[in-house]
């Protein structure tokens, strides 16, 4: 059994040891957190994580192919900027569409729950009724053979 011979109570000693452990762990955590924050040198390039690729760029291609594709797109954009300079967007669309204004795109209709139920009811009404509800398959085979 632990006995305290210096006249202090055993509870105060436990509290002091607990506080010492808490202070020590706080100092260690702060020290480790300070060590783990790295600094980037001024001359190192910064890589952007989860970068968003421009529209039309195939991210599965190798980096050199992506660079070539983006260079081709930039050249095409510069050429089109010079070609259509000073024109409004609707005139550019007419010219690209062959002189006629593009027809508006109709919205696609997705069936609703009611549409699905209505279609199921129409299908069930068009399907022939079950000739023998509750009959076994072998009994239906005998009836069909007899009907022929």
Summarize this, please?
This protein has helices spanning 10-36, 63-83, 89-96, 113-126, 137-147. With 148 residues, it is mainly α. The relative contact order is 0.03.
Structure commentary:
By secondary structure, the chain is an all-alpha fold. It has a domain of 34 residues. It contains five helices and no strands. The radius of gyration is 40 Å and the shape is flat.
The radius of gyration over CA amounts to: 40 Å
N-to-C CA distance: 101 Å
User: What does the main sheet amount to?
Assistant: none
Strand segment tally: 0
Estimate percent helicity: 40-55%
Look at the structure and give the mean pLDDT: 77
Structural class: mainly alpha
Topology summary:
Blueprint: H1 10-36, H2 63-83, H3 89-96, H4 113-126, H5 137-147
Key traits:
mainly alpha
């Amino acid at each position: 059994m632990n006995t305290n011979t210096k006249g202090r109570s055993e509870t105060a000693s436990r509290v002091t040891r607990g506080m010492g452990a808490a202070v020590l762990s706080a100092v260690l955590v702060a020290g480790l957190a300070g060590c783990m924050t790295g600094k980037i040198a001024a001359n190192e390039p910064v890589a952007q994580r989860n970068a968003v690729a421009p529209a039309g760029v195939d991210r599965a291609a190798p980096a050199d192919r992506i660079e070539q594709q983006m260079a081709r797109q930039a050249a095409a954009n510069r050429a089109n900027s010079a070609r259509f300079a000073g024109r409004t967007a609707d005139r550019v669309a007419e010219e690209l569409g062959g002189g006629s204004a593009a027809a508006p795109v109709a919205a696609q209709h997705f069936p609703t729950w009611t549409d699905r139920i209505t279609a199921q009811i129409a299908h069930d009404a068009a399907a022939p009724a079950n000739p023998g509800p509750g009959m076994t398959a072998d009994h239906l085979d005998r009836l069909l053979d007899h009907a022929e």
